TrEMBL record:
Residue sites binding ATP per the record: K230
Family from the record: Belongs to the protein kinase superfamily. TKL Ser/Thr protein kinase family.
Name of the molecule in the record: Serine/threonine-protein kinase STY8
Each ANK repeat, start to end: 123-155
UniProt xrefs under PANTHER family: PROTEIN KINASE DOMAIN-CONTAINING PROTEIN (PTHR44329:SF62), SERINE/THREONINE-PROTEIN KINASE TNNI3K-RELATED (PTHR44329)
Pfam family, one: PK_Tyr_Ser-Thr
GO molecular function annotations of the record: ATP binding; protein serine/threonine kinase activity
Organism the protein comes from: Cinnamomum micranthum f. kanehirae
Record keyword Protein biosynthesis present: no
Length: 481
């Protein structure tokens, strides 16, 4: 009798949820899954969760857990649909709950009982999906050791790696990729606003303008405008890990907006290759400028240094996580038609969460040796100050007219800087005293002793003001004579 009364009020509950969902900030196509504990037959220990599913079909993370439940779905733009479902915490589904909560002991117990590590819920989401979504690195490691399918696909077509990327769990992404994990979610699903139709880009009439970390860079026309097309080599595109790095660069770049950062325009997806489009800066790179002009006058060098520092300060203060460039070189600094410098090429960048500043370890030769900080070369922990070190070497080149120790190989130079504390000479009279002091601080051997880009900007602005006054005074003296 009680059960019949409970089901009698079900339509009223459905309408109540519809009214409540009208006040939630959700897309019109979103589904609000609400789970109640009104079923009289529900066993103690069963659990439920409220979950949002966004318009693109990406499952949001678990919000709240109840002791027992029956669930149904209601969508504003489709007919109501009732889907009762029971999950018993004392049964095999306890594996999913423990995985989502990071309960290593619970996961181990369930697997030892014989529960399959590939057990999935109604949405075909496995324990590995849940652990990847919630950032439970230990559970991900454990499940993979126990034979979990690294590329299991849920009802939204997402793999565990798709979830880890969506929620920014970089360490888990790395673990999944090392075990052969792939991300089947298409570019148009991840970033629909930035996907460009291949027919809109004239790739037949292209001009090679450079080589990037993953492939060639061409000058092409898109919607009548000249843009730079950065391609990814087919050999890289066929490598899931390398392709993942390329997609991470896309996700990183698309949200950046600053006068001293090269503007990302979109990504072109074709059947055989992936292509970035960015604004085209016809004046070339700082490397090209120094190669052509040699030593820059102090005012120009300081102005250029300010452009780079402002762009880098924007990256380092990026929210919610700072961005470490890791490959700041003269080739990765471009000049627009107005003479302003812009930082580009984030192919080796790392989204650095605060906890990672002191824990991330190099696994390979990331970055260019000639501009590499000592701690990076030594494969030690590092943080944002590696970019400050590279910046100092670039500023030195602007005053000097090129890199020091040109006869040595870049790796030999990096080795001496890392193990002999070698630094470029500042004996020339072309360096203002304030610049000498700033450079020594920026390429200091102790990373924590290097200034932030915010402080560097303040120092450079004072130096610029002093140089401008000196230039005006010199000009006036000449006029008087």
């Amino acid at each position: 009798m009680r059960g019949r009364k409970m089901f009698w009020i079900l339509p009223l509950l459905e309408h109540l949820i519809y009214l409540l969902s009208s006040f939630l900030i959700l897309p019109s196509s979103s589904i609000l899954c609400v789970l109640f504990s009104f079923q009289p037959s529900a066993e103690p220990g069963s659990f439920a969760a409220i979950r949002r599913v966004n318009g693109g079909g990406t499952p949001d993370r678990t919000i709240k857990v109840f002791p027992r439940f029956v669930g149904f779905s209601y969508s504003k733009d489709q007919k109501k649909k009732f889907q009762p479902q029971m999950i018993d915490l004392e049964g095999p589904y306890r594996l999913l709950y423990c995985s989502s909560k990071g309960d290593k002991e619970g996961v181990t117990q369930e697997i030892e009982k014989g529960v399959s590590p590939n057990l999935a819920d109604y949405d075909k989401r496995t324990a590995l999906h849940l652990a990847s979504c919630e950032g439970c690195t230990e559970i991900v490691d454990l499940l993979l050791q126990k034979g979990a399918d690294v590329n299991s696909i849920d009802r939204w077509g997402r793999s565990p790696l798709s979830d880890a990327r969506s929620f920014g769990h970089e360490e888990i992404c790395k673990v999944l990729e090392e075990h052969g994990g792939t991300d089947p979610v298409g570019l148009d699903s991840q970033n629909p606003c930035y996907v460009i139709d291949h027919d809109e880009v004239d790739m037949d009439d292209k001009t090679l303008i450079g080589e990037g970390a993953f492939g060639a860079v061409y000058l092409v026309k898109w919607r009548g405008t000249e843009v730079a097309a950065k391609t990814i080599r087919s050999s890289v595109a066929s490598n899931p890990k390398a392709k993942g790095t390329f997609l991470k660069e896309l996700a990183l770049w698309q949200g950046l907006r600053h006068p001293n950062i090269v503007q990302f325009l979109g990504v072109v997806k074709s059947s055989d290759r992936l292509i970035f489009l960015t604004e085209y800066l016809r004046n070339g790179s700082l490397y090209d400028i120094l190669k052509k002009k040699g030593r820059l006058d102090p005012l120009t060098a300081v102005a250029y240094a300010l452009d780079i520092a402002r762009g880098m300060n924007y990256l380092h203060q990026h929210k919610p996580h700072a961005i470490i460039h890791r490959d700041l070189t003269p080739r990765n600094v471009l000049q627009d038609e107005s003479g302003r410098l812009k930082v580009t090429d984030f192919g080796l960048s790392k989204i650095a969460q605060e906890k990672e500043f002191c824990s991330f370890k190099m696994t390979g030769g990331t970055g260019s040796y000639r501009y590499m900080a000592p701690e990076v070369y030594r494969r030690e922990s590092y943080g944002k100050s590696v970019d400050v070190f590279s910046f100092a070497l670039i500023v030195h080149e602007m005053f000097q007219g090129g890199p020091s120790n040109r006869a040595e190989s870049p790796e030999a130079v990096a080795d001496r800087r890392a193990y002999e504390d070698s630094r470029p000479s500042l004996s020339s009279h072309v360096y203002p005293d304030e610049i000498k002091l700033l450079l020594r601080e920026c390429w200091h051997g102790e990373p924590e002793s290097r200034p932030s880009f915010e402080k560097i900007i303040t120092e450079l602005e004072l130096i610029q003001e002093k140089l401008q006054k000196k230039a005006v005074g010199t000009c006036c003296s000449c006029c008087i004579q």
